[in-house]
Amino acid sequence: MGVLMELRHLRTFRVVARTLNLTHAAAELHYAQSSVSEQIQALEAELGAKLFDRTSRTLTAAGKRLSGYADQVLELVEEAKAAVDDERGEPDGDLTIGALETLCAHWVPGILSDYRTRWPGVKLTLKEGGRGELYHGVRESEMDVCFTFGDAPGEPTFASRKIGEVPLVVIVPPGHPLASKEKAVPGDLRGVGFLATPKGCGFREMLDRLDGPVIDTEVGSLAALGRCVAAGMGCGIVPALVDHPGAVAVPLAGETTDVTLTWRRRDEHKPSIAALLASA
């Protein structure tokens, strides 16, 4: 007889397989929970196998096997759509862009303004998040591209391009010995107490690569870091774009961080992304 699975059922199943929760999946998909349940049941009926155990909230063995195939099928669908877009050659449809908070405020708006002027028919959505969230969003096709500081992860899924660089500054409390300097060099930081964001954050990597600073406090965000520095808890290193009211910024000689645009490699020639690269 054959199996005639609907793509929307596979998309719904993929979210259920990731969240393992019908309520959360419904909220993410903007469906009623009953609709999610009905779609999973329809898929189970077509395949003749139970995919999701609602009591234990786990995938069955059949569900686990289907999960990998669902990813492959939906990726091929996206590739097919991209191929059609390539044939038309003109950007259209939706483009979801992720960016770090600082870049949302200071870098991305100019790029998107230029893009919107050139391609008014593309519907743009801008999402803010941490670097890990952004890469996850691109990896899972929840975002088309993302803007971050530093290098993109070296994994086959991603393609990336450096689109600029931003100087780094040392932010220090008023009255700190470094506050009177016109410019700091890495040697000035040796033995100085610094605040840092957690490991895995791009800003932490900027600090870790320098020889000498002593990291004695971790904070969860750049906003909190700036306030703690202003309160006298220590120093910090941030891109010059970052707001830091109450703290003194001292340029760090010779140190910059790249601004990087990252997308899925399979979307390399998608017209809307190629157009964004041109604007960036």
UniProtKB/TrEMBL annotation:
<dbReference type="Pfam" id="PF03466">
    <property type="entry name" value="LysR_substrate"/>
</dbReference>
<feature type="domain" description="HTH lysR-type">
    <location>
        <begin position="5"/>
        <end position="60"/>
    </location>
</feature>
<dbReference type="GO" id="GO:0032993">
    <property type="term" value="C:protein-DNA complex"/>
</dbReference>
<dbReference type="Pfam" id="PF00126">
    <property type="entry name" value="HTH_1"/>
</dbReference>
<dbReference type="InterPro" id="IPR036388">
    <property type="entry name" value="WH-like_DNA-bd_sf"/>
</dbReference>
<dbReference type="InterPro" id="IPR036390">
    <property type="entry name" value="WH_DNA-bd_sf"/>
</dbReference>
<protein>
    <submittedName>
        <fullName>Aromatic hydrocarbon utilization transcriptional regulator CatR (LysR family)</fullName>
    </submittedName>
</protein>
<keyword id="KW-0804">Transcription</keyword>
<dbReference type="InterPro" id="IPR000847">
    <property type="entry name" value="LysR_HTH_N"/>
</dbReference>
<comment type="similarity">
    <text>Belongs to the LysR transcriptional regulatory family.</text>
</comment>
<dbReference type="GO" id="GO:0003677">
    <property type="term" value="F:DNA binding"/>
</dbReference>
<keyword id="KW-0238">DNA-binding</keyword>
<dbReference type="GO" id="GO:0003700">
    <property type="term" value="F:DNA-binding transcription factor activity"/>
</dbReference>
<keyword id="KW-0805">Transcription regulation</keyword>
<dbReference type="InterPro" id="IPR005119">
    <property type="entry name" value="LysR_subst-bd"/>
</dbReference>
